[in-house]
Write a structure and sequence with these properties.
By secondary structure, this protein is mainly α. It contains nine helices and no strands. The longest helix has 29 residues.
Amino acid sequence: MNKRELILNTAIDLFTKHGFEKTPVSAICESAGVSKGLVFHHFKNKDVLLREIFLRTTEIIGNIGKPHEEISDPNKRLTALIEAIFISMAEHRKLYRFNLNVMLQPATREILSDLIDDRNAMLFETTEDIFKKISEDNSTVLTHTFVAEINGIALNYLYFYDDFPLEDIKSN
């Protein structure tokens, strides 16, 4: 792993564990075993580091549905999307935790507001496209309900229960 990746991964761990505001750059440096100069060589400041990590999570989340775009049956496409979401959540648990942390903290929401808006619009459009094919009349409500349901499952899986039955929920 190169030093840039080491800094990113260390920052993800510390931001997730302690929060963005309570993680000084010096803690990232100490934990990663790098100098502040190296951190600032790669990232102009801590906000830029945060934005880069958020963009990384957005890329992972945005790629979830791509392999299933060619599925013409909307119900099968929705099933494939749900399967992919659950797999991604389990595979990238640390990034999803980070993601929820920064989206729920007012200071980080402010730093990321444009990126959050862009991601939400992308996710909503992608999901609504499926629901329009299932029910044109209720597509917006179905999309909001679906997103809220996934967010609730993610919150419970990532934070509240160590033994959360993610596989059982996915199966039902």
